Structures are given as structure tokens and as C-alpha cells.
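Lab notebook: predicted structure, single chain.

Context: the supervisor wants predicted structures on file for every construct in the current expression panel, including those that have not yet been purified. This is the next one on the list. No modifications to the sequence; it matches the entry in the shared construct table.
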Amino acid sequence: MPLSDFKTPRDRRYFEDYEKGRSFEYGPIGVEEPEVIAFARQFDPQAMHIDPDAAARGPFHGLIASGWHTIGLMMRLFVDHYLTSVASLASPGVDEVRWFKPVRPGDQLHLRLTIADAAPSRSKPDRGMVHTVVEGINQQGEVVASFKAMNLIGRRHPEASPQREGTSEP
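Prediction complete. Output recorded below exactly as produced.
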């Protein structure tokens, strides 16, 4: 259940709808053992992620999801619920990816998002940059992973570019 909600749906959401300080929560998304193993076999083939017997003898005492799989599950919720479907332009990256707790098959993850900053571009009036703190939370309420997202979002009504002196350019 959202801590607060956007006034506009994803298909009509623009930069102006992302207000600094607002928080949202979405989910759950389930963590399934076959997906944990399939992801890890392809992208992170360590025993703790692909071999239940070896994982049981390891430091986590059981199979755990790759951190990259966890981030992927979080990203799914981020795109499905938070990110605009009509004005998302690009992301220059993410910062401070952290894994705090193991994620296991059977877990149910929620996403908590807090808009840390939202600033219009100084050089391109048709967009703004939104900085979001993204936290993955398990069914016990524990933060299992986090990252800081940066997203370029189109503006609903871009301000007209200032006219340059000596030109007829708008």
C-alpha cells in the first residue's frame, strides 16, 4: 500500500509529479527458487545461489538470491509502479548499491521509494532530474537492499527557452 500516492497515473505522469520528500511503497513481489537458480546460473553462478545442498553448508545456511537478482526484482516494481511510462527519458546511472540481508526463496519483497531531490534541468527545459532512494524490504520489514536512482523525466509543459540577445530565436 502506498505511503502516499501520485495524483496522476503512470501513463500521464511527468517530472512535475515527482515532489521532493514524497514516499511510496509498492509490492509485494515473490522470490521463487526456480527463478533464483535460473538467474544465478546465467549471471552469478556461485554455489550459494545455484546449489541448495552446498548453500545449506555455507555461511548463509541455505540458498540465497544473487544480489543482482534482488536488484532486478526491485527494478521490476520500480518500473511497474513508480517510473512514468510516458516521460521517462533515460537514467545516467545508480549510486550506492547495497545488500544488507540475504534474500531467500519464499520471501516477499516490497519497495519503498523516497524522492530525495527533483530539479529541472538548467540546460534543457524539457526535462528534470529525479533522485530517488530505493529500498527493498522483506516480509519481516527488514531492508535487504538499496540504491539511489537517477532518472531524467520529461516535463509536462516545458518552459520556453529564453530568447538570446541579438537573435530572433525563441
